[in-house]
Input
Amino acid sequence: MNQQIDIRDQAYLSGSEVKKLNFIKEPTTLEFRKYYRSGLRSHIFEVLEARDVQRETHGEIIDGIRMFPRARPLKMFRILRNRFKNKEAVFKEIKKYNTLLKFLGPDLIALSEEFMADYTGTGESQIVLCGLQEYVDGQILDPWRLFGDNYLMDLFGSPQDGLDQSALVDKARKNIESFVKKIREMITLTGYIPDLAGIGNLILTPGGDLKLVDINNIVEIKLNDTILVDDKGYPSCDVSIEVLSILERDILRQEIHMEDPLYRLFLSPKRRERVKIIEREFYTNL
Output
């Protein structure tokens, strides 16, 4: 992006309650708009050019026709919902992102500039972790809806400039293969896996690149009968490993070997049934 974003520009915690953040200044040329997919762990805002929002709202005349072009975000502004007791706790959280960056690299994750802010909106000083994250345009790679042999072909729709659909599908498959390989390396060397389970966590760009956009949830893998849940009570570890197997089997067309210690444990029928029960309880209590 060409314009430097001042992180003090105005943003709100919700559309219905106008609650200004004390580390935000009055808006200038930028606007912050609450993103429709804000998650369990973060408030998420689109960082937009004010003039682009104006065009989107009021339209502009193009060849005699009033068009309403969608404002494209410059960045995604995240505010983690967690409140941290000290800076050391924040640095520990940021370490998760650095681990992802180390193993996956900038080509496979949405890059982010992480920073701390002193939030006083509750009447007392609290440390919050924020991030200015790369905006990734594209289609959601939903592991739970991989319908048909032409799933990737259908996902891209009409051909893009300079690439036909078959070339895009080949490129996407190679990027998914690289992603799976690096996730495997991360599991082997660290004993951790990122959250692959959430719908919208994996995005395929129009050019065939794959990006992991949920960069703040990395869970430990324990090779025992205990089903670990994350800080929200979701069995992220088990479900993420299941997603890994889906990518290998249904997109890469690789045979799933149950003698693999990872799959032998986490994909066993009895364990998967226990995980499904925990998932149902999680969604019931949302």
Q: What stands out?
A: The CA atoms of residues 192 and 219 lie 5 Å apart.
